[in-house]
């Protein structure tokens, strides 16, 4: 029930069903979380969607590739990095949290290594994919932490209105 024939008649996993269920879970999570509506709901949805795509593309049978790297995974990682950089802006110090950026790049390199292992080694795919699922969740948590910090900043500074100099 979760597979369909490809162009060659081989039965492959229907990844689009998992992606649709993942999108529904994201919608329900955002709609029924305690802070709905929030100023970061869009970033939260995109973060979860991109993180899911990083994993789901690894189980897709046919994907656009450059070498052993899947293009959709690269685009999703770029999207996650853009969200991370946007959320890194801190009102007081205007500095980056370099630990998050370094963790992002280390996890991304590990995911690239896992893709390489899927393509070039004879290790059991199930163990590599389980590791990729954990790495994708870890990557999502790094970016989600930055999104939630950004949400707290929006709440903190929503009522902030600086008093001009010389005003009582």
Give an overview of the whole structure.
- The protein has 168 residues and is mostly helical.
- The protein has helices at 15-32, 41-59, 71-87, 98-120, 125-158, and strands at 3-5, 11-13, 65-66, 69-70.
- The longest helix has 34 residues, at 125-158.
- It is globular, with a radius of gyration of 20 Å.
- 22% of the residues are buried.
- The model has no long low-confidence stretch (mean pLDDT 80).
Summarize the structure.
This protein has five helices and four strands. 66% of the residues lie in helices and 6% in strands.
Strand content: 5-15%
Total strands: the figure is: 4
Major sheet attributes: 2 strands, antiparallel
Widest sheet, order of strands = 1-2
The pLDDT mean sits at 80
Low-confidence blocks of residues: none
List keywords for this structure.
single chain; 168 residues; mainly alpha; two-stranded antiparallel ribbon; 5 helices; 4 strands; 66% helix; globular
What secondary-structure arrangement, pairings included, does this model have?
Blueprint: E1 3-5, E2 11-13, H1 15-32, H2 41-59, E3 65-66, E4 69-70, H3 71-87, H4 98-120, H5 125-158
Antiparallel strand pairs: 1-2, 3-4
Helix pairs in contact: 1-2, 2-3, 2-5, 3-4, 3-5, 4-5
């Amino acid at each position: 029930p979760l597979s369909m024939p490809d162009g060659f008649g081989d039965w492959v996993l229907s990844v689009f069903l998992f992606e649709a269920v993942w999108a529904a879970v994201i919608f329900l999570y955002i709609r029924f979380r305690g802070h709905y509506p929030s100023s970061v709901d869009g970033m939260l949805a995109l973060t979860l969607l991109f993180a899911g795509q990083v994993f789901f593309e690894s189980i897709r049978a046919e994907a656009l590739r450059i070498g052993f790297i899947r293009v959709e995974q690269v685009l999703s990682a770029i999207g996650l990095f853009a969200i991370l950089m946007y959320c890194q802006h801190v009102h007081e110090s205007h500095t980056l949290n370099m630990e998050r950026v370094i963790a992002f790049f280390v996890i991304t390199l590990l995911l690239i290594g896992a893709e390489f292992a899927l393509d070039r080694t004879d290790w059991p795919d199930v163990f590599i994919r389980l590791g990729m699922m954990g790495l994708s969740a870890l990557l999502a948590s790094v970016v989600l932490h930055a999104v939630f910090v950004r949400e707290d900043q929006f709440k903190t500074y929503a009522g902030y209105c600086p008093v001009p100099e010389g005003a009582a």
